[in-house]
Specification:
about 300 residues; mainly alpha; about 75% helix
Length: about 300
């Protein structure tokens, strides 16, 4: 009975992942089955708590502060207490995510503090919808995405502690990519994740952003943001070699595919208001093939050196 319950819980997490993030789900397909299920459990929690804020946004007016904070904040508190119980071993088995997490924690030492930081990051969306500096935005990116690197690293397995800051940098790179891809959608929800001081530096106004203006100033601003995201991808890259062999392809593929979203933004001439930057299936297939061949080459070279 317990085995069937756990199987059902992971299947629920798989469905959440598949529906919410095609790129993340695609990458997870290259993980060993147990690690794949554990990563689905991580993602399902991320998606669930993120949806709490999205639902609050659906009732919020276009003003400088958000309505409807109280109920979502209570929902996030529920998850804080739920995870505390899960880590102590007596979570609610009838909740699919809690059930999957309890089974996952029996196999992998996923850090509790990173899960709490994730919830704190999601809660930031209830309190603010503008960021003055990149330092302020970085804290948000760390909490909502860098923490995911910390949560998944024990699942992937790593050789040295140096892998952890690299995992955080990859998470931040992914979040910066999300921010650039979703500028138009976020503007419709009265959210701006581009640092205000950088918008001012490039002489691009909030009014222009809300009107979906793509001019020279905007293109320069977005090129600057893309260059920053590129830097985080580059800094994260050495961490992949520190992961367990059976997870390197999946992590490398996920990072490469997400990085490709930046290329799509460029191809769309920086129009992130009426064109959504997404990676076509044929690109995913080609990338998967290239990454697999590269991994095989590196494995053979390592064997030759040995």
């Amino acid at each position: 009975m317990r085995q069937e319950q756990v199987k059902s819980a992971y299947e629920y997490c798989r469905q959440v992942t598949r529906q919410a993030s095609k790129t993340f789900y695609w990458g997870s397909a290259f993980l060993p089955p147990a690690k794949r299920r554990a990563v689905w459990a991580i993602y399902a929690l991320c998606r669930t708590v993120d949806d709490i804020v999205d639902e609050a946004d659906s009732n919020s007016p276009r003003v400088g502060h958000l309505r409807g904070v109280e109920e979502p904040a209570q929902s996030l508190d529920y998850w804080r207490h739920a995870l505390e119980r899960v880590y102590k071993g007596y979570g609610d088995d009838s909740d699919q995510i809690q059930c999957a997490w309890m089974d996952m924690l029996a196999q992998y030492p996923v850090p509790f503090q990173a899960a709490m930081d994730l919830l704190n990051g999601v809660e930031m969306d209830l309190r603010r919808n503008r960021y003055q500096t990149f330092d302020e935005l970085y804290l948000y990116c760390y909490r909502v995405a860098g923490t995911v690197g910390l949560l998944t690293s024990p699942i992937f397995g790593y050789q040295r502690e140096e892998a952890l800051p690299r995992a955080v940098e990859l998470g931040v790179a992914l979040q910066l990519t999300n921010i650039l891809r979703d500028i138009g959608e976020d503007a419709c929800r009265d959210r701006i994740y581009l640092p205000q001081e950088e918008m001012e530096r490039f002489h691009y106004s909030e009014a222009d952003l809300m009107d979906g203006v793509v001019n020279d100033a905007f293109c320069e601003l977005i090129r600057f943001q893309i260059a920053r995201a590129d830097e985080y991808y580059q800094r994260a890259q050495p961490g992949i070699a520190l992961l367990s062999q059976d997870c390197r392809l999946a992590v490398s593929l996920s990072g490469t595919l997400y990085h490709s979203i930046l290329d799509r933004i460029r191809l769309n001439k920086y129009n992130v208001f009426t064109q959504r930057a997404s990676v076509p299936l044929k690109t995913k297939l080609a990338t998967a093939s290239q990454q697999w061949m590269l991994q095989q080459f590196e494995m053979r070279r390592a064997l030759d050196r040995a």
